[in-house]
Amino acid sequence: MTKSTFNGVIDYNGIFISCFQTEDSKCFHAMPDHALFYMYSGQQKIIDNGQEVDIYPGECAFIRRDRRIMFHKNAKDGEPYKGISMTFKRSILREFYKGLNPSEMPQDITAPKGNLHKIEIRPDITSLFQSLTPYFDADIKPTDEMIKLKLHEGIFALLNTNKSYFPLLFDFTTPWKIDILEYMNENYMYDLTLKEMAHYTGRSLATFKRDFAKISELTPQKWLISKRLRVAYEKIQKENAKASDIYMEVGFKNLSHFYTAYKREFGTQPGK
User: Each residue of 111-146: pLDDT tens digit?
Assistant: First the structure.
């Protein structure tokens, strides 16, 4: 493997190279597209709505689209975290689908249940990601043609792993609208943009704003802050939780900001 000089994440138009030399990383990612993750070194824990999958060097996992996922990226045994992910946008999947022979399409197959799948180790998966090893050198950038070729190779590898991925990958239907308040009550703690909230509830941005105005006098951003503060209040008053322990859990990034917002909402500091 070439020496990796960068620290962070590089996006090559849908293929993400990640390297953390020393420190561990914990983060949320919005996944509007299907994604395939592979570990070179270190360790990664992927968490989706209570389901946890540990990924070790040489292992791979698939996440279906429209998910909000937590990642723990850790160095292990003296090796830095190094991983790579492929995201399969609908445009790539449509292009791939058009090139398929109808006789290659399996019939009467049901898409796999669940949103997070660990993929069995196979030679085609291993060789695909090992061929991307040189791009851990930040000075070497793949061409757009190479990126498209590797993404197509990734789709082939998934389909060869399990035929049930056919109906999952090539479902191009528009998502149905889901209840906005139900979604926001389940996901208030995440750092979602308006565009992401609209997408995950099956709406355009304009439709989301219009539908939200029908159910609340607050803006979506103010509703989220109010919700986070109410949950924090319950935890502090009824569970004797400390502000420093729960402010990130309920969706605040900064403890000072949390204290200010809490006092503005309730007229007192947390715990008083």
Answer: 888 889 999 888 999 999 999 988 887 677 889 999
Backbone angles phi, psi at 150, to 5 degrees: -70, -35
Q: What is the mean pLDDT of the chain?
A: 86
Examine the fold and report which residue of 140, 169, 198 is the final residue of a domain before the chain moves on: 169
User: 121: which 2 tokens?
Assistant: 């180790």
CATH of the domain at 88: 2.60.120.810
Q: Angle at Cα 27 formed by Cα 175 and Cα 250, nearest 5°? A: 80
Residue type, 181: L
- For the chain, how many residues are written? 272
One-letter amino acid identity for 164? S
Kindly give, in sequence order, each residue whose CB lies less than 8 Å from that of residue 91, ignoring residues fewer than 6 positions away. Answer: none
| CA 4 to each of CA 1, 42, 57, 79, 80: distance values in angstroms, whole numbers, following the listed order | 8, 14, 16, 12, 10
**Residue 240: DSSP 8-state:** -
Pairing of strands 34-41, 60-63: antiparallel
